[in-house]
């Protein structure tokens, strides 16, 4: 790939397709290494083409061409040209039938893109550009076609044959094999095509839509997993009902199917009527699945289902518009999860991911706007920015417009663009029309990269009772634009004022009080200028501003809070998110004290304010347990690294451990009491309150294990032995293997017994691998090198790669960032292997190395050396080339 340097593709070069495909008929004859794909495409010239070209150019990769014909006439090799990425036919009529026969090799397909084998099953992954590995086609999302798909295979090996839409015929084929024909009446781009064949069992249910149509729901799994489908089915039905109630959107086909696959690059895929899921995002039962796992299943099932409208009925014109479907769908699934569980907890979880991982992406060499202007390999742009920041951008529109106008805008968008491939402009225009608001400045969120910084300062005038708040915004330089070139964003800042006894009423100067609202302690300021001042009247005492309630915008907001002000917000503000956020800020300040002492070789001091604040939370039984658990969790090493100017790996790790131990010792009585109180035996449930209770108990256990008390080690051992669910069992195991009290033998016994108990459950074994990869004790790299030799590891399976290599490199900073660079060399070795097998996974694993600029000089050199070694590989995939070359720029 390196000989001809991979080219960038630009949004500004977008042209409408020269040809359209009205109808697509496919016939698959399945075989492990020689699958035959016959296609019949009804093609016509696009009357709206920008630059009508005479020749027909179809995408195609790794296809063995058997034959071609146009209108029934076979083409001789003089009539066409086949390259590694395209088939060109120089002259074609205005309207014609194109037929091709190609051979493909599913068994040899380790990229897991196109048609491939996973264990005993055939399945497909076509987003973004995988369909071109199945047959010659116009593989772009603005070419939408009706599909008719026939699959022919041995009935004994592949009793189940599935594709999109409705089953219209099945039976015995002339060959003696059996066949099934599926018809999808909804026009779709090729990236939403799917095929599955295998020996699968299913659970079935029905859903009656609001208009009274009965939909058959089926979840297909290997028979050993049939007892792990209930939660996904329940989640699916909840999602279907919720989308009707909240967005007025109803399902359209007569059947909705989900298939669980063990080898899958991403979480899941929204293929029309036939969603394909990574087993990790669909299978769940209490014995094998943690609470986080249950919640992930609920949200991913909902996410893929919601795509049926935001993605499938209205799709993207081109891949630069990816956030049109992904940002909106993540926003919708977050609203859903919040409604099903707890608003505040969901918000805290989402913001933690955003501030830790997306902000890091936005500050690194791969930073890009929510709508990137260019890419080399689109698979590299399924990012936290496109998904999570994209969702925040939709969320800001929701905040600015209000729920009602937002819903009107969404209705308009879906009705106006149903059956079309749309753009981000189309979405914003619908929102503007529905609300009468001008979002022109707001759209800069889609085109400017980087995390804006907002600095707040204030004055209070006691005599006049006025409080003046000044907000100033800026945005750092990112690869596509310098800081000075960036234009101000339109930033909604939800806020309130806190006084001694609680929140104060808000009266903004020059703005009449809103008679419609009974909550006058909350306001959304709109920051649109580089600097703006807001004056509040009738303020009877010097207030503490509570800024960015609910994290109303994806910005870094700075205000010079005193620690006392933070504890006041923590205990008294009306907004749960802000209470948690204040707690995090206080903890960061305390951790920074210790980091400073560590660097300066001074005595360590943990601010008693934090101890007191935690004590108050632990003894207040009226508080929501989930919130208590979240507040007790100190900012992660990843978050501390993100906010650092230069990452001091050792200081961060030391400080966090030191403060944890200090808190565990100072609060041991309260921690023990909370542990005992929440360790009751109750029937298992995944209700928000049951999850909250386990979360608090296990957070507390992670503190108890930091003490020097043998009884606490026994507590963890008992919990591991007696657990009736995976959340408790895994927390017990994690506590033991991280404990400094445990002996090597005790740690080994716990791990061996766990493995023996669960070796047949791939998803549990993955969690066992993650737990080990994350152990921060010395020797982590050697342990991980042993793990990749373990029988449970398989480099061809993305879940295993993520569980060992991914977890180690991003979740175990002290070991990965070893001073001698051995961690970096290990990762480069693995990336070079994966570059050949599965470029998408190889490229994603690179992320921790791309952040080299934030480390000390010594580490910078070592990290760059590892990247250079990867770049020197002669046969580098586009995926890896793009990330390595951009991160070294
Ligand atoms: N569209 C899917 C996820 C997905 C994205 C990219 C893929 O290959 C590059 C595969 C799947 C979703 O958002 O769920
Ligand atoms: Zn999605």
Automatic annotation (TrEMBL):
It holds the Pfam family Peptidase_M1_N. Belongs to the peptidase M1 family. InterPro entries: Aminopeptidase_N-like_N, Aminopeptidase_N-like_N_sf, PepN_Ig-like_sf, Peptidase_M1, Peptidase_M1_dom, Peptidase_M1_pepN, Peptidase_M1_pepN_C, Peptidase_M1_pepN_C_sf. The keyword Metal-binding applies. Residues 25-192 form the Aminopeptidase N-like N-terminal domain. Residues 450-560 form the Peptidase M1 alanyl aminopeptidase Ig-like fold domain. GO terms for molecular function: alanyl aminopeptidase activity; metallopeptidase activity; zinc ion binding. Residues 232-444 form the Peptidase M1 membrane alanine aminopeptidase domain. It is an enzyme of class 3 (hydrolase). Residues 564-889 form the Peptidase M1 alanyl aminopeptidase C-terminal domain. Its EC number is 3.4.11.2. Keywords: Aminopeptidase, Hydrolase, Metal-binding, Metalloprotease, Protease, Zinc. This is Aminopeptidase N. Aminopeptidase N is involved in the degradation of intracellular peptides generated by protein breakdown during normal growth as well as in response to nutrient starvation. The keyword Hydrolase applies.
